[in-house]
Write a structure and sequence with these properties.
Layout (H helix, E strand, L loop, with lengths): L18 H12 L2 H4 L5 H7 L6 H18 L3 H4 L5
Helix pairs in contact: 1-4
Length: 84
């Protein structure tokens, strides 16, 4: 589940495109058993599709991919980026 904090100071957060989705994916992976118990890197956990990683993390990975792809798609300039 995405973590949004309305009280968060926006001047300190990363303002790059798709940064919110990237942060949510990182938090999701760091809280999974694959990283905590098996001491693997988050990249390894995603690459191996470890069963201890929740499906939510894989959904966030797909969302991050779509967000990054929308940056390259010229049609998205008029429609806006995904993830906002």
């Amino acid at each position: 589940m995405p973590i949004y904090d309305e009280d968060r100071d926006l001047t300190k957060t990363n303002s790059t495109p798709c940064s919110g989705v990237r942060e949510d994916l990182l938090i999701c992976l760091q809280s999974s058993d694959c990283v905590k118990l098996h001491h693997k890197s988050p990249k390894e956990c995603l690459k191996l599709r470890d069963p201890s990683v929740p499906n939510e993390c894989f959904t966030l990975k797909t969302l991050l991919f779509e967000c990054k792809r929308s940056l390259l798609d010229n049609r998205q300039r008029f429609r806006g980026r995904k993830g906002y």
